[in-house]
Structures are given as structure tokens and as C-alpha cells.
Write a structure and sequence with these properties.
Blueprint: H1 5-10, H2 16-28, E1 38-44, H3 52-72, E2 76-82, H4 98-102, H5 122-136, E3 142-145, H6 146-152, H7 156-164, H8 166-173, H9 179-184, E4 188-190, E5 205-207, E6 212-216, E7 223-227, E8 233-235, H10 237-248, E9 255-256, H11 260-273, E10 282-283, E11 286-287, H12 304-310, H13 313-321, E12 328-329, H14 335-348, H15 354-357, H16 361-365, H17 380-389, H18 395-405, H19 415-435, H20 443-457, H21 465-477, H22 484-496, H23 504-511, H24 513-524
Parallel strand pairs: 1-2, 2-3, 9-10, 11-12
Antiparallel strand pairs: 4-8, 5-6, 6-7
Helix pairs in contact: 2-3, 7-10, 8-11, 10-11, 13-14, 17-19, 20-21, 20-24, 21-23
Length: 531
């Protein structure tokens, strides 16, 4: 490969996507595999709609993909694989026409009618939702359907490998099962020709040469013989995962920490077939507001749609980039800080050396080409506090202050800033306003607020945020606070109705000297601060 300065720097980059990408470099020793590209995969169970975990897995895998391309220049592909031949185990709570679905329990999702009436099957409906979901975020991928792979013959050779090594596969799987399941387990699940249901039945006979297995129909008792190929059978999922890796030549797939044992088991099965398990790592699961694991069935987490109500997509991508091996709370209160972290990383990028840029999350979020940062310097938390103190009901109220603070800014010239203003107003209305609790100042705090009011009145219009912050510090030092933190906490609780807030000098510069003095006056007079 030709020398490339960026590639040389990437070889020593410590960001986790580069660490993962180096596993793939080592896998092929710098040579393009025989299939002509390196293949990464993400999997999706289409019994429900795409969720935030789906986004996280595709986003993180894409980051590894781009890091690998930077390191090697090799062609890559990303498959978004849908397990749409799985049998429908239960009727989801969040779909219409549930009675219709109840009549088709056990059938492959692509043979279950679409309760929404928009596609030929429930599986196809959810597959379309997945593709639309991924397309909205601009992911580059190739969609692949289990039903298509099974019925087209694409998996036939691999399925015959499973039949050929049936006993060895069984020996790997059985020790992981309970006594009852062990007695009936088979990697093959015949699709009943009579009912269309995916059957979990004992296999009573198999013919490797003919490529068939036999079972007794659980309702009629009739001995049935079916091919293992062509979609007449599907595999139990752990064996199915291994077969898919083998059949498609998957080089990389990450999975949640809850699947560590399944990854190990499937990797052993791949080796039985004569294949090589993919590279990958186990990411930690998300926690809800109470520190419990997020569950789709419980609905105790945060959806993609909910995040995007209060923060830009790039902030969600940053949340997925940061510390993937650490369990993190995924709830509404993480959004403001994550948005500000994104803006901070974006602002730093233009002035960083190239090696530092490779460590910057925005390089990975934007595939090495992040947009220019906003020039206003306004943080999301500052906009949020502005929306809070002026009780904003729409963006225009906030923009009135922003335009005065940064005259060159406008919704048209600063579209990201305009979006942030909208996010701040919605977040304030839904989360900040209901939780606001103002308190009256203590005697010490009252004296300090009187002092601060006089100081602000003596400042010239246009005084910088830094200079205002310095004056606020000096006021706090002149009064009997145990720590300056207590002074700022008092400012937030008395004036903003919350326990923490932005740099107060920045807030005053944005809100205005005259308006800030009026706000202090209102608190000193004991008026209703929420009005």
C-alpha cells in the first residue's frame, strides 16, 4: 500500500474505533480478503420497530468501518441483517390489528400479515421501517433478509455443513441448556408444510447425503421428512448466527454484553464448519434513570425519537461514541450535557493537529469531515437557561436575546444554532419548567445580590462574558460564603430555580445587563419568579 501521512498517524491513534480496526488489519495482515472486501455486520430482530440500540450498533460499527478504511484503504461493506424468518412469538403491544397477528403466532415474520396494511407481511413492514430509519441517518449499508437468504439458496451450502457436523454442533450447544430443552433440542427448526409454523421439535432422523431431516408432526403424529435447504428449515438462533458468519464471510460484528456467552458459543460452531469467527467486542448495555437495564418490553429507556426531540442526531452519535464498554444512563437528563460536549468537540476540531483530530469524536461521527462549528459561541445549557429565565413559549423569544448578543447570527445563517434554540425551548417546557423550585435568599445572599446588582449597573454595555464572570467572582469573595460554589449555587437557586446552571457571566452577557438587574430586583422584592 502507498504511504499516506494520515494512515501513518492513524496507526497510533488511541480512539477505540481505531483499536477495533487494528483487529481487522491483523486478521488479514494488510491483504484484501479473497471476497474483495472486508465485511462488517449488524443484526436486527424485526419483531418490533427499530430502537436506540439499533442506532447505537450501526453507528459504532460504521465508526470502526471508517477507521479501518483510513488505516488500510481496503474496500469494505456493512450488512444490516434482518432475522425475519424468526417465528412470531408474541403479539407486540404497540401495533394495530392485534387479533390478526394472534392468528399467526409461530409463523415466520415474513409470512405474518402486516397489521399496518402497508406491506405483504409484518416482517417486510418492519424491514422497511429499519431501512427508512438507517437512511434518515445517512448510514451506508446493504440490507439483507434472512428469508431471502434461506429461500434463495444462498445459505444452502452452509446449512448442509450444519447437517454434516450435526453431532459436533449438538455437543457444543447441549451443555448450555437445561434438562428439558436438552431432551428436545435440534439446531434445525422445520417450517411445518401444513401450518407454516416454525417448529421446535426433536429431529428423529437425518440424511446427510439427501440433505434432509425427519420429525414427527406434533399434532398429527405423522413422520415428516423435509430438506434443510431452500427455506424448509431455519436454524436455532445461536447456530443460525454462526452459520450466517460462515456463509457470508463476516469479518466483524459487535454485540451487547448480554450476548458474550452466545458469541463464544457461535464462534466455536463456526470453527467446526472450518470457518473463522468475526472480530468484534462486547459493548455495555444502557441503564435507565434508576440505574436498571433498559428493556424494550418494559419501555423504561429513551427512544431515538425522544432524543431527537431535544437534541440533534450528531449528539446521539456522540453519546454512542463515548465509552462504549461502560454502562451509561440513557435518560433525558443526559441530553443537554451531551449536546454541549458535541459543540465543544466541534469547536476544537479546526485548530487541532491532525493526530489530535483522529482522537476527536467528531472525526468519527462525520467520517473525517465535520462541519464548521457555529461561531456564536453559545452553548446549549446557556440557551436552555435563557429559555428558562424568560419562560419561553417559542423560539422567537429566545432569538430576540440571541440576535442582540450576536448581531450577525440569524436562523438562516446559523441553522444549527436555530435548531438548538428549538431544542432548548422544548426541553425547558417539558423538563425544566415542571421541576423549577425557587427559594428566597438568606441574609448573606441578599447582601451579595444587592452588591451584584450595583456592580452590574456600573458595567458598560457590551462588557464581555469573561469580565462579567470576574466581577461575579469578586462579589462572592466579598461576602461570607464558605466557598464560592455556595455563592453560585445561591444565584442558580434564587434567580433560576435550579441547583446548577451555566457560567453566570455568560448568562448575564446573553440575557442582558439591564434584564439581569431586573431579575435580581424581582428576587429581592420577593416576587413570584416563575411568573
Amino acid at each position: 500500500m502507498p504511504a499516506d501521512p494520515l494512515r501513518t498517524l492513524a496507526e497510533n491513534a488511541r480512539a477505540w474505533p481505531f483499536e477495533e480496526a487494528r483487529k481487522l488489519v491483523e486478521r488479514y495482515q494488510g491483504k484484501t480478503p479473497g471476497k474483495g472486501y472486508v465485511l462488517l455486520e449488524t443484526g436486527y430482530g424485526p419483531s418490533g420497530l427499530p430502537h436506540i440500540g439499533t442506532f447505537g450498533e450501526v453507528a459504532r460499527t460504521t465508526m470502526v468501518r471508517r477507521a479501518f478504511e483510513t488505516l488500510t484503504g481496503m474496500p469494505t461493506k456493512l450488512i444490516a441483517f434482518s432475522d425475519d424468518m424468526d417465528g412470531l412469538r408474541k403479539v407486540p403491544d404497540n401495533v394495530p390489528n392485534q387479533e390478526l397477528l394472534a392468528q399467526h403466532l409461530g409463523r415466520p415474520l415474513t409470512r405474518v400479515p402486516d397489521p399496518f396494511g402497508t406491506h405483504e407481511s409484518f416482517g417486510q413492514h418492519n424491514n422497511a421501517r429499519l431501512r427508512g430509519f438507517l437512511d434518515n441517518f445517512g448510514f451506508e449499508y446493504e440490507f439483507m433478509s434472512a428469508t431471502d437468504c434461506y429461500t434463495s439458496g444462498r445459505f444452502d451450502a452452509a446449512l448442509r455443513q450444519v447437517l454434516r457436523h450435526y453431532d459436533a454442533v449438538i455437543d457444543v450447544v447441549l451443555p448450555t441448556l437445561g434438562p428439558e430443552r436438552r431432551a428436545t433440542y435440534s439446531p434445525f427448526l422445520p417450517v411445518c408444510p401444513r401450518t407454516g409454523v416454525v417448529l421446535q421439535v426433536p429431529i428423529v432422523d437425518r440424511d446427510v447425503e439427501a440433505g434432509t431431516v425427519s420429525y414427527d408432526d406434533p399434532e398429527t403424529g405423522e413422520r415428516m421428512t423435509v430438506a434443510v435447504t431452500g427455506g424448509a428449515c431455519k436454524l436455532q438462533w445461536k447456530c443460525d448466527w454462526a452459520m450466517r458468519w460462515y456463509a457470508l464471510g463476516i469479518d466483524y460484528e459487535m454485540a451487547g454484553k448480554d450476548l458474550i456467552d452466545s458469541v463464544k458459543l457461535s464462534s466455536r460452531i463456526v470453527k467446526i464448519f472450518g470457518g473463522t469467527p468475526p472480530e468484534g467486542f462486547s459493548y455495555e448495555l444502557f441503564l435507565d434513570a434508576g440505574g436498571q437495564k433498559i428493556s424494550k418490553s418494559k419501555g423504561n429507556g429513551l427512544s431515538v425519537e425522544e432524543w431527537l426531540t431535544y437534541g440533534p442526531p450528531d449528539s446521539l452519535a456522540l453519546y454512542m461514541f463515548q465509552q462504549p464498554r461502560r454502562a451509561k444512563r440513557l435518560y433525558f437528563d443526559v441530553i443537554p450535557k451531551t449536546v454541549d460536549d458535541y459543540l465543544s468537540f466541534l469547536a476544537k476540531f479546526p485548530d487541532e493537529d491532525v493526530d489530535k483530530r483522529l482522537e476527536n469524536p467528531v472525526w468519527h461521527i462525520h467520517r473525517g469531515q465535520p462541519p464548521a462549528p457555529e461561531t456564536s459561541g453559545l452553548s446549549f445549557s446557556l440557551l436552555l437557561n435563557l429559555a428558562s429565565v424568560c419562560h419561553a413559549e417559542d423560539k422567537d423569544v429566545v432569538w430576540g436575546y440571541v440576535a442582540r448578543y450576536a448581531p450577525a447570527a440569524s436562523p438562516e445563517a446559523n441553522p444549527l444554532l436555530d435548531q438548538l434554540v428549538g431544542y432548548a425551548v422544548r426541553y425547558y417546557q417539558d423538563f425544566v419548567r415542571p421541576a423549577k423550585t425557587y427559594r428566597a435568599p438568606s441574609d448573606t445572599e441578599r447582601a451579595a445580590l444587592e452588591d451584584l446588582k450595583g456592580v452590574l449597573a456600573g458595567l458598560a454595555a457590551g462588557t464581555s462574558a469573561e469580565d462579567i464572570q470576574t466581577e461575579v467572582y469578586e462579589v462572592g469573595k466579598r461576602h461570607a460564603f464558605e466557598t464560592l460554589r455556595d455563592w453560585f449555587k445561591a444565584l442558580y437557586e434564587v434567580l433560576l430555580g435550579q441547583s446548577q446552571g451555566p457560567r453566570f457571566g455568560s448568562f448575564v452577557a446573553l440575557y442582558g445587563l439591564r434584564e439581569s438587574i431586573a431579575l435580581i430586583d424581582k428576587a429581592l422584592r420577593g416576587e413570584d419568579m416563575a411568573a
